């Protein structure tokens, strides 16, 4: 994953967050987190047969910036944010003739959250991700759309537990129209 753009985005988030932190009381609009889970890969592999694989351990790291909360209807509290996400899969075994696959990448997403109770919130995200993969010894890279749903349970004003389901779309040479499904459990910390 390129480190210079990621570092620049994090610094921009920190500096812009410091300027507007006053509207968030005693917490910052900046959050970070990580999650681990399982990734499933599916793609059409010639003659109508599908390549499917599931790894034994994937993960993602994320950092985001919350914009000021707003109300769409009476009693609602919605928060939108921009998130940087890094993805990494374990090794996935595909059909015998296609060997194994592994993925990694980074993405930028827009997330909207709805607070349902004092502790529980649900969210949806959409964005773009650049994935690079190794398939049967050959490396490829692709950019595609991402989407996801999730929930967070706040343990206190800083720490929350998260559960997310993400879908990433990409194309890798002969494995066009690749779909990657990622189910994770993790934690997030709001500064």
TrEMBL record:
Classification via Gene3D superfamilies: 2.40.160.20
Compartments reported by the entry: Cell outer membrane
Keywords assigned by UniProt, alphabetized: Signal
Cleaved signal peptide residues: 1-21
Signal listed as a keyword: yes
Record-annotated Outer membrane protein beta-barrel domain positions: 10-191
Source domain of life: Bacteria
SUPFAM superfamilies, per the entry: OMPA-like
UniProt protein name: Outer membrane beta-barrel protein
Species name: Massilia mucilaginosa
